[in-house]
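Annotated sample (chain length 275).
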Amino acid sequence: MDAYHRNICDAPSLSSSMARTIVNECPAFLHANSYLNPNFTPEPKEHFEFGTAAHLMFMEPDQLAERLEIINAPDWRKKDAQEARAVARTNGKVPMLIGQMAELEAMRAALFAHSIASKAFVGGQAEMSAFVRDGNIWLKARPDYLRPESLVDYKTSTTANPKEFARRAFALGYYQQAAWYLDVLKAATGEVRSDFWFVTQAKVAPYLVTVTRFDDDAIEAGRTLNRKAIEAFKRCVDTGDWPGYRAPETPGQDTAFILTLPTFAQREVDQLIAA
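Output written by the structure step:
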């Protein structure tokens, strides 16, 4: 997994999250916060480690003993627990408190009690990487679970409410992620999968689960934005220039931006004026 996030190809490689960073931020931000920057060292984040542990428990339980380090402490506040966590990370393991493991067991029970989600991680392959050449770069994808007819992505969240997930999915570019994985897998293997499903689970009791996917229009929009990100990445690789925020119509030069009020703010202003 760590190797996937580094560059193991013979040319620069672009992942879904990197493409989304180009679209939602800028090339300079991507360069500074990825393997492209030789001085970049990712900081371990507890919520990512919890998600990794959940992935292992639900999709690769045979790897739990090898990849997890269970720390017998109630929390991370004491020095002994912090030192044990640091040692686990140094050894390439995911540190989990014993209480967190109990939470994960309860989440697993809730997920497999869901009549649809319980079938999502059966009969397929977990964490398979795919790579395909695109001109002077590589495109890469690593879906959580690869089924014969679909791809499945598991996400933990503060809520599994589908309305809230829809808002977050747009903000985080998950429609781009779905299009990216479907397209890269097709290009790399020749296999066509019809759907990309999100299984979202709340991290608080009763650990509710929802299963969702984007419609065809959203996937096509994500595909278009992905292509823009790919071409921008290629230009950066070719020129060695990783620009900051620039206007789409003048990508070759810095820009002074003219701001307009967001729609919701304009409505509020109009109401204030009319009052």
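Annotation: Residues 216-239 form the longest helix (24 residues).
Annotation: The first strand starts at residue 13 and ends at 14.
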